[in-house]
């Protein structure tokens, strides 16, 4: 009646393997295309944030350009112009501006 249905007891191990192998392949693809690059990017960002020093020119996530005046573990004070100082979280820094 059902020509595509497997008979009981025949091929039980083969169907389990044919179910697991695609899942393993999918996980491997997700790992190498999504998870691993994201971890690498996060590590690079954390290294950049930890290497910041007074006097570095940076750009915040909101696009504000400034120079670091004070620096603590989680707070950064930026000099935007001669008289304006703004306080940001360290995580609000997008990237450091290269000097060249």
Automatic annotation (TrEMBL):
The chain crosses the membrane at residues 16-35. Keywords: Cell membrane, Membrane, Protein transport, Translocation, Transmembrane, Transmembrane helix, Transport. Its main location: membrane. Pfam families: YajC (PF02699). It is found in: Cell membrane. InterPro entries: Preprotein_translocase_YajC. It is a single-pass membrane protein. Coiled coil: none annotated. The keyword Zinc does not apply. The keyword NADP does not apply. Belongs to the YajC family. This is Preprotein translocase subunit YajC.
């Amino acid at each position: 009646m059902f020509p595509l249905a497997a008979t009981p007891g025949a091929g039980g191990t083969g169907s389990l393997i044919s179910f697991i192998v695609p899942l393993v392949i999918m996980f491997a693809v997700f790992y190498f295309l999504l998870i691993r690059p994201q971890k690498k990017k996060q590590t690079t960002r954390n290294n950049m944030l930890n290497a910041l020093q007074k006097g570095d020119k940076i750009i915040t996530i909101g696009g504000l350009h400034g120079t670091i005046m004070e620096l603590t573990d989680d707070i950064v004070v930026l000099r935007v112009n001669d008289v304006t100082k703004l306080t940001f979280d360290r995580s609000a820094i997008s990237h450091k501006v290269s000097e060249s």
